[in-house]
Amino acid sequence: FKRACKAFGLEPVWTSHSLRRGGATQLLINQWSIENLMEFGRWESATSAKLYLRRGEVALLLCRGDFSEELEQRLAVVSSIGAQVFRLASSI
What is the 3-state secondary structure (H, E, C) of the chain? Predict the structure, then answer.
């Protein structure tokens, strides 16, 4: 994952855990219920899930504008598989 980030010109602070936080945050943005998110993310407490998701939203806001237009376009192409992955994951 770190090599992929480097290839996209991202700072090395991104980790595979960033995918978990970002994925959960995107599911929240896509109107998933907190109950479904808790089950999918294996959270036992709604309080901890909401705190985790809130931090994910803050992280997204902070990183917006950090990317060049070219990098955003490349990331959009790579992330376009996300909807398909979420559909597959929700059917499990």
Answer: CHHHHHHCCCCCCCCHHHHHHHHHHHHHHCCCCHHHHHHHHCCCCHHHHHHHHHHHHHHHHHHCCCCCHHHHHHHHHHHCCHHHHHHHHHCC
pTM attached to this predicted model: 0.54
Dihedral sign, Cα of residue 87, residue 72, residue 29, residue 6: positive
pLDDT for res 58:
67
Please report, as a single letter, which amino acid is at residue 22: G
Query: Side chain identity at 9, as an amino acid letter?
Result: G
Q: Taking the CB of residue 4, how many other CB atoms lie within 10 A of it?
A: 11
